[in-house]
Amino acid sequence: MFETTLLLTAAFLAGALNAVAGGGSFLTLPALVFTGVPPVVANATGTAALLPGYMAGAWGFREDTAPPPGLSMHLLVVLSLIGGAAGAALLLVTPDATFRRVVPWLLLAATALFAFGPQLRKALAGGHPSTAKATVGVLAVAAYGGYFNGGLGILLLALFGLLGQTNLNAMNGLKNWVSALLTAIAVAIYAAGGVVLWPQALMMMVAATAGGYGGARVARKLPPAVLRSGVVATGLAMSLVFFARQ
């Protein structure tokens, strides 16, 4: 009963966090690992659990969603699917020991990039990136999301900011759509590879969906600074937890 409550709570909060600004896997991955699930399987299961939450969050931001300058929605869909598939395939061939070692560094890097996103955007100001550079950026982040998913929303928000998007609600809506697309193809590959624990995943999906929609509706009314501070604090805390576990 304790483990079930832990997983449901983590999934609900993760769905809300993903809808707000990203970083939901900072909660689901540690919760699954705490219950004894191996890291690679925990990552795949947590990713599957958050898929409906991404979709619900995207619907919650439906009035605000808009693509970044230089990219169309059609191109974003294609890039998201290709990158997500590549990252998921890489996860299937990664040993648990290796994945355990890189997780805290991935979490820390994602948190730092989001925290300093506004400064990076100002430093790179002086014209919007070319479509080619934007394409490479989206492919790289989508592959990361298919491989790890932890901090995916943080990276997407940072990327959209660097591409010239400034409206946080529009960025959040797009982040959720892209996350849903690449996560869907990644979960299909995880399932084919047999690394998803479906009983836990299905149970967590329900909680993540409720959290995703509710979080999106609430986030539209919160100051951006509050959202950014909350995500950074969560990312730092989870990074420390995984470093300590090593």
UniProtKB/TrEMBL annotation:
It is found in: Cell membrane. This is Probable membrane transporter protein. Belongs to the 4-toluene sulfonate uptake permease (TSUP) (TC 2.A.102) family. It is a multi-pass membrane protein. The keyword Ribonucleoprotein does not apply. Keywords: Cell membrane, Membrane, Transmembrane, Transmembrane helix, Transport. The chain crosses the membrane at residues 71-93, 102-121, 141-164, 176-198, 225-244. Its main location: membrane. InterPro entries: TM_pro_TauE-like, TSUP. The lineage of its organism: Bacteria, Pseudomonadati, Pseudomonadota, Betaproteobacteria, Burkholderiales. It comes from Acidovorax facilis. The keyword rRNA processing does not apply. Pfam families: TauE (PF01925). It comes from the Bacteria.
